[in-house]
Amino acid sequence: MINVLDSNYFLERCQIDENGCWIWKHSINKSGHGTIGKDITGNVWHESLAHRLAYRVMVGDIPEGDEIRHTCDISMCCNPDHLFPSSNHRKTKGLDVDYFTERILQNETGCWVWQQYIDEDGYGRVGLQISGNVWQESHIHRLAYRVLKGDIPNEYEVHHTCRNRACCNPEHLELKHEDEHAHDNGHNLKTHCPAGHPYSGNNLYLEPNGGRKCRTCMHEQRKRNL
Hints:
Elements: H1 7-11, E1 14-16, E2 22-24, H2 50-58, E3 67-70, E4 83-86, H3 89-92, H4 97-101, E5 104-106, E6 112-114, E7 129-130, E8 133-134, H5 140-148, E9 156-160, E10 173-177, H6 178-188, E11 204-206, E12 212-214, H7 215-225
Antiparallel strand pairs: 1-2, 3-4, 5-6, 7-8, 9-10, 11-12
């Protein structure tokens, strides 16, 4: 039955928004996903979710046990360029939101600021073991994304919309292509304090709420106050 479908089947039933998402215009389920009840031959279609059917038609088979995730985070989107297979149960089994909320401090902006190890670049790190196997995802924000939102496809990075590298609130995390992520970080994240000292290495002081301060400036301020 899948051979009679093509991209036009979806384009005729979607509205393309400014981000290139193909927004399904017909039935939507409680999870926000587009649904299909029948195929165009009148036979009941076994693949009821529009985005999964779009992936099968325009990309290929879905590996057994995998889900289809959205790089755009828009559940109603059927654009095949925004879809990727996810095996997120594979390594995150046993973890849930409590793992993170028990180890963070929530600040006034809603950031979940990691309260354990922070590396020299300001990112939370974790050395987690599940069933005796060392967890390979050492950045806490990436682990939070995998556990609470889904897999991270190749060539994509997890971006902080809050600009707080120690944050692992899934609502503050989004996927960006690695080229866009590098450009965004390079232009918008301050790497030096107003006096020109680097926010890195031993000169970086991280406040409990996730804020960054320059140790050189802090030291000079203390000397002036003596």
